[in-house]
Amino acid sequence: MMAGDFEKAWQTGDAIESLRPTRLWNGQPFAGKRVMVRCLHGLGDTIQFIRYAAELKRAGAVSVTAQMHPELVELVSTAPGLDAAIPWGPQPEYDLEIEVMELPWAFRTRVDTIPANFPYLSPATERGSRLRAGHPRIGLIWASSAWDTTRSIPLARIAPVLPVKPYSLQHGPEHTQAIGRCDIFYSGEQSSDIMQTATDLMNLDLLITVDTMAAHLAGALARPVWVLLRHDADWRWMRDRGDTPWYPTMRLFRQPEPGDWDTPIREIREELANYSFPRVNRRA
After folding, report:
1. What is the pLDDT of residues 58-69, one digit of tens each?
2. Listing from the earlier edge strand, what are the strands of the sheet with 84-86?
3. Neighbours of 201 (CB within 10 A)
4. Fewer Cβ in 10 A, N or C end of the chain?
């Protein structure tokens, strides 16, 4: 899949899938079925692949329900084709279930057939942004989740070289790295409320981030986003690309060698020096 040969991966999956119980999707049509989509992986995975709810409806599904992490329910419920987004717990009756990351396989997705109707999520309009007035507004997230610290960059390594002072959108313990610094706007730890994060992203001119949930959220909202990727980034980013068919408003800046963050940081600094910031229709 990293090489872009999705079809070969689907053929391998077909052989495995034939061993599944019949209530789990194993290749049968979705037409006339009540489909339960299980979002059992990370928050970013759900955001990336929930776009396939609309494909399920186009394939004739009677209803599409997605069960997911509770913090995603409010935002993901705005996805086209989705009849209901629910947390863990009680669930409606269904005929077929499928894991959200298996949907590209189910639809035999190729690089040139990835669903690309953007934006496909919509934050609540009544929420205001917590960002200060001014232009340009650049958001910065430098640390990924604790389970994979190789995606993270120390703030002191990136903030001083940016030609524009960014806003911290960091949450988790790493947010304290911004305390007392004059090269970043800091207003405390960012909220874990994903709808609020989405509202903030809608009021940015650009997000610069490591590989995090927020990268997927910005992409789903069709916001300009630049993502710093480690050398061995996972399959969804493929290889040797500075763009991605998953998110047309996203650019990728990659480590050329393991541990080399200096190169992509330098590339971002050079790009920012000549970047024409698009004006956004801000909500606050």
Report:
1. 999 999 999 999
2. 84-86, 63-67, 34-38, 96-99
3. 24
4. C
